[in-house]
Amino acid sequence: MRYPLRYAAFEWIKAKGSTTDEDLLEALNKNGSKCSPDERDKLLMQLEIIGLITIRWVSKDKRRIEARENPGEVRATRLNE
After folding, report:
1. pLDDT tens for residues 28-53?
2. Domain range for 52
3. How far, in Å, CA of 41 to CA of 81, rounded?
4. What is the tally of structural domains in the chain?
5. pTM
């Protein structure tokens, strides 16, 4: 059974603390998974919507990805509003 790509990406981001989108793509491809930039963008969007990561633009073509410290608290406050 193959480990879902978004979980592998989140675990790698969480271990690093913060990274860039290009470094994440290299790490996912080096890990044995075939990941295209479109797939990477889709999984990053899913993780950001869930509230596990934040994404900021560093330059025109580069994004900084950070793991949130307490993702459960953000989710709980959104549900209570």
Report:
1. 999 788 899 999 999 999 999 999 99
2. 5-80
3. 29
4. 1
5. 0.79
